[in-house]
Write a structure and sequence with these properties.
With 380 residues, the protein is an alpha/beta fold. The protein contains 16 helices and 13 strands.
């Protein structure tokens, strides 16, 4: 007689979020005690299929104008309705989701109201820089029943918020598990894809809108592109698309008109990590610039310097490879100049804990027969 498996459903609403939860999904698929499904609401299904996720359920959302202030509320309401139907069909024992996306907030509302134990990855972080992320992240924590932080500061913050300590674990950032697994793009693959000779430093640039102050998106982007333009003769510049936050269409429309840089919708982890690993292997210097959380959290592993522009990541725990600058052309110029010359970074990664994904799954398994205990949340 076979034992009943623990049904884990994961939710992914965006490309960047999937990169973080995919490690946990892939490891769960290889453990016989779990039955794993993935619910997707974003436009990254093609990429997900390449990751060999076995059971995928797609939520089709109506196309919306993400330059309008009603964008978030319209997506949230639609996701709540549609994921409720998926959860009703799948009847998972746990729904596992990531941190701070507005689509994820909708999923947490649906699952918690259906008395499905909800698990949040990257709980307790703060980003004070003009996005809805903090409000959404902490609201999801209130709706979740198990909370996984990526660092001790975030764990302590959750306890201060009144969450019960037994629900909270710091197992680090799960995406580092995959870094160990991935065969990064080789130097020859990189040369071929990006048409570069690797005889110049590389700047990886990713710029997201600030959702609270999204009307400044265009002017802030232009400041950054002016600084990058000054370096293009001596540096290879590779740009990736933003996420789908309010105002992202403004950025994408500008990129479509721009023929000065190498611009890609997505690099995938194979090439993204491959490029950064050039720095680790001392093949060529690679700098990350822009306002992406990846520049804060993932670059320490590769010893890549990061120029964090603007206040989007304010408050987030940083290693000493990060240089923070405002949206000011002269300040950005100087930060790029200094960072290109500096080769000394003694970096300690505050987000790394070995075997993060396995530790997450083992902790969830402890609550297989403790649903009522999980659902009965109390605040200190």
């Amino acid at each position: 007689m076979s034992l009943k498996k623990i049904r884990l459903s994961f939710f992914s609403g965006s490309r960047s979020e999937f990169d973080i939860i995919s490690n946990v999904i892939e490891r769960a698929q290889n453990i016989n005690e779990f039955e794993t499904t993935l619910i997707v609401s974003g436009n990254h299904l093609k990429k997900i299929r390449k990751n060999k996720i076995k059971k995928i359920f797609k939520i089709n959302l109506a196309k919306k104008d993400n330059t309008k202030e009603t964008y978030y509320s319209s997506v949230i309401s639609e996701v709540i309705i549609k994921i409720t139907n998926k959860l009703k069909y799948l009847r998972p024992d746990f729904l596992i989701l990531h941190g701070d996306r507005f689509e994820t907030f909708a999923a947490a509302i649906a699952s918690s109201s259906m008395n499905i134990p909800t698990v949040q990855l990257e709980a307790g972080d703060i980003t004070n820089g003009g996005t809805y992320d903090d409000s959404v992240r902490h609201a999801i924590s209130r709706l979740s029943h198990i909370l996984f932080a990526t660092n001790q500061e975030s764990k302590k913050r959750l306890i201060k918020f009144g969450e019960e300590e037994w629900r909270i674990k710091n197992f680090g950032l799960s995406s580092f598990d995959k870094i160990h697994d991935i065969n990064f793009a080789t130097t020859n693959e990189i040369k071929k894809k990006f048409q570069i000779s690797l005889n110049k430093p590389i700047i990886l640039f990713t710029f997201h809108p600030s959702s609270i102050d999204y009307k400044k998106t265009y002017s802030n982007l232009k400041i950054c592109l002016k600084s990058l333009d000054k370096l293009k003769k001596n540096v290879d510049i590779i740009i990736t698309y933003p996420n789908n936050d309010l105002g992202s269409k403004i950025i994408i429309d500008e990129y479509k008109k721009n023929n000065k840089f190498k611009i890609y919708e997505s690099l995938g982890k194979h090439f993204y990590y491959g490029l950064m690993s050039l720095n680790l292997k001392k093949v060529q210097k690679v700098i990350c610039a822009g306002n992406s959380s990846s520049g804060i959290k993932e670059t320490p592993f590769f010893h890549c310097p990061t120029i964090n522009i603007g206040n989007r990541q304010d408050g987030r725990l940083q290693a000493n490879n990060v240089v923070n600058v405002k949206f000011n052309e002269k300040l950005i110029d100087n930060a790029l100049k200094v960072t290109l010359k500096n080769n000394k970074f003694n970096i300690k990664n505050p987000y790394y804990i070995e075997n993060s994904s396995i530790k997450i799954l083992k902790f969830i398994k402890k609550f297989k027969n403790k649903k009522f205990e999980l659902l009965n949340k109390k605040y200190q």
